[in-house]
Amino acid sequence: MGVNFRTGNPIWVYYTDVDTGINLRVPTLLKGMAGEQYVVHQLDIPRYKFFKATGPLTGTFDDRQKTVHLYYRKQTWHKIKDVNLYLQTMAPTTLFDQVDGMPVESPMPAGLFLRAFQLIETTNHVLWYQINADRWVKEGDHLRVLAHDPYADEPSPVRANLESDFTYLKLNHLPATVDFVPNGKVAVYDQAYGTEIGQVADGQKLILTGKIMDDNGVVWYEAVDHGYINGSYLKLEED
Questions:
Q1: MucBP domain location, by residue (predicted)?
Q2: What is the CATH number of domain 11-74?
């Protein structure tokens, strides 16, 4: 009786930017006979560092379908955070094509409102805001981070309109931690969408006594001895 030689299922290997989803190398197709061993190697990709892998990096070819993803991150990117922030240009502001990239177009004039959906802190502790798919602005005195949507109607005072404009939930001294960027600070207010009265540092421990949600789903928390802080900057310690 002859030996039954057969090929195993091929394995696709992808080398991907974890933050953008862009393939950094042409995907590789590994082929082999059933039972033959395979090994997926990390590649050295200029200006990138290896981040993580999903899928089996070693094993044997068989009848199962396998895919391996090796994810990389730009070397200068230290911390990435999805945000929903509004910025105001206080002076002419340069647009860049990427973090630490090249200036593009003419500087934006003062007085414009921008919406940022991603915040990057680089390894040299500089903050960058992504305002479009390939447009970034760099932190500085020319930018001001706003507490609310400048295009929305001016909100009413919280305590006078809780029933009509906000949903208020009393909390039993819930512990939380400020979750921003290392060495960064977040503003606190006398009320939701109110006047800034101070700042709290990244990693600072807070005790929460109230939670407010407006009609747009924006969440604010009331912190003991501090005031109100936007919920996107807090990590709750409920466990």
A1: 10-73
A2: 3.10.20.320
